[in-house]
């Protein structure tokens, strides 16, 4: 089939860019051009222009609104619209009920099954005094940032970027992170989920609680190129050490629209319980024109599969019956009145509320879980050409 070629002016018009930008694409290898018969002008393949338009290169135009597409080849996680994240070929929803968070993390890092005798994880490092002395207004993310930085400073081999070394850093970080919450009794032994529960609650875990917490950690371990994961990969591309990669992810996670989303949803459940039902709370949100926390997702067109999985687990876990009923009533009432479906933040908040855990529990879970994903992406990014993230700016100011 003969190539349909178009002149440069038409190619620029279809892409929505200036001619100079069109030739910049050629110099960067994004487009190819051929000389016209007279040798004085350039022509472009119409199909190639169309493909470039579809893959989001128009996002390089100066814009103050909208989104910017970043496409990265990865073998870590694939998102299935109906089944949720798939970690190296395995459904996260399956891993959440079939094994520990530690096994899921090892799988993300190496893609190998640890077998019946999984790699042992270290005991947590002592919590730095600076973390214990932080103001009560400090979030879990702020506390974990200090822990990550402290552990990095003490590790003379922090720039060992071999995959097995990165996995070792991951185990050390996650074990230490799980020991930071100090509301409860605290404990050094046991699984990550057991250690985390002991730090978050003064009460022994009810039957099924640890399994639900473990499942939440697995389900939140990775989710493609979320904002914090992109930040982590950019840091890895500069050859920042694994601790700094995690710190970069934590920095992005502090946003209320990312890692802090479950806290607002948790408050909604508390308000519904205090009000004797969801109607006053939802009615007030609707009156103010505000979205319901924990509803809607940029990727899933229907319900978040992770939310469905976690919801099924916590409903059967034997938590306080009144709180579980409040959670179910709020879900039903919101689903009837909101055009989008509940996401993982809503389900995580429902679990932490029903279990009587603090409102910031979701932030601890999110940060500890996603550390596994960030480091899995770091392993991959360290194998790429360094400093490959260099978006081009087009100045639009005065």
List the helices and strands and how they pair.
Blueprint: E1 5-7, H1 8-15, H2 19-27, E2 33-35, E3 42-45, H3 46-54, E4 77-80, E5 84-87, E6 90-91, H4 92-98, H5 101-110, H6 129-132, H7 140-154, H8 163-178, H9 192-200, H10 209-219, H11 227-237, H12 242-253, H13 261-275, H14 279-288, H15 305-315, H16 321-337, H17 344-354, H18 361-382
Antiparallel strand pairs: 1-3, 2-3, 4-5, 5-6
Helix pairs in contact: 4-10, 5-8, 5-18, 7-12, 8-18, 9-10, 10-15, 10-18, 11-12, 11-18, 12-18, 13-17, 15-17
Could you walk me through the main structural features you see in this protein, from its secondary elements to its overall organization?
The chain is mainly α and 398 residues long. It folds into two domains: 5-56, Multidrug-efflux Transporter Regulator, Chain: A, Domain 2 (Orthogonal Bundle); 69-398, Citrate Synthase, domain 1 (Orthogonal Bundle), CATH 1.10.580. Helix content is 52%, strand content 5%. It contains 18 helices and six strands. The protein has helices spanning 8-15, 19-27, 46-54, 92-98, 101-110, 129-132, 140-154, 163-178, 192-200, 209-219, 227-237, 242-253, 261-275, 279-288, 305-315, 321-337, 344-354, 361-382; strands at residues 5-7, 33-35, 42-45, 77-80, 84-87, 90-91. The strands form two sheets. Strands 1-3-2 form a three-stranded antiparallel β-sheet. Strand 2 (33-35) and strand 3 (42-45) form a beta hairpin. Helix 7 (140-154) packs antiparallel against helix 12 (242-253), helix 10 crosses helix 18 (361-382) and helix 13 crosses helix 17. The longest helix has 22 residues, at 361-382. It is globular and about 85 Å long. The two termini are 48 Å apart. Residues 56-61 have low confidence and may be disordered.
């Amino acid at each position: 089939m003969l190539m349909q070629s178009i002149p440069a002016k038409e190619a620029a018009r279809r892409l929505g860019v200036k001619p100079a930008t069109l030739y910049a694409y050629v110099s960067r290898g994004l487009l190819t051009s051929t000389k016209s018969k007279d040798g004085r002008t350039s022509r472009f393949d119409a199909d190639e222009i169309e493909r470039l338009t579809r893959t989001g290169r128009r996002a390089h135009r100066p814009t103050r609104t909208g989104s910017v597409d970043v496409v990265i080849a990865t073998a870590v996680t694939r998102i299935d619209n109906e089944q949720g994240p798939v970690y190296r070929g395995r459904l996260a929803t399956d891993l959440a009920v079939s094994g520990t968070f530690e096994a899921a993390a090892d799988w993300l890092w190496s893609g190998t099954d640890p077998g019946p005798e999984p790699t042992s994880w270290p005991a947590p490092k002592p919590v730095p005094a600076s973390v214990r002395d932080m103001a009560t207004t400090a979030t879990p993310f702020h506390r974990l940032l200090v822990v990550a930085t402290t552990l990095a400073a003490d590790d003379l081999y922090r720039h060992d970027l071999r995959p097995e070394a990165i996995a070792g850093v991951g185990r050390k970080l996650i074990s230490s992170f799980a020991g930071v919450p100090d509301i409860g009794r605290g404990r050094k032994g046991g699984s990550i989920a057991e250690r985390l529960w002991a730090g978050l609650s003064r009460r022994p875990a009810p039957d099924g609680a640890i399994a639900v917490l473990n499942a939440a950690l697995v389900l939140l371990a990775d989710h493609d190129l979320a904002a914090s994961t992109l930040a982590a990969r950019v840091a890895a591309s500069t050859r920042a050490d694994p601790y700094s990669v995690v710190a970069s992810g934590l920095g992005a996670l502090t946003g209320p629209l990312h890692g802090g989303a479950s806290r607002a949803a948790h408050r909604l459940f508390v308000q519904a319980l205090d009000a004797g039902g969801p109607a006053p709370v939802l009615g007030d949100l609707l009156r103010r024109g505000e979205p319901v926390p924990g509803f809607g997702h940029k990727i899933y067109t229907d319900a978040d599969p992770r939310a469905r999985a976690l919801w099924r687990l916590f409903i059967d876990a034997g938590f306080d019956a009144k709180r579980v009923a409040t959670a179910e009533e709020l879900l039903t009432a919101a689903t009837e009145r909101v055009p989008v479906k509940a996401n993982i933040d809503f389900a995580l908040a429902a679990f932490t509320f029903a279990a009587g855990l603090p409102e910031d529990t979701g932030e601890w879970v999110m940060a500890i879980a996603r550390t596994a994903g960030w480091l899995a992406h770091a392993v991959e990014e360290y194998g790429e050409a360094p400093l490959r993230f260099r978006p081009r700016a087009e100045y639009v100011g005065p």
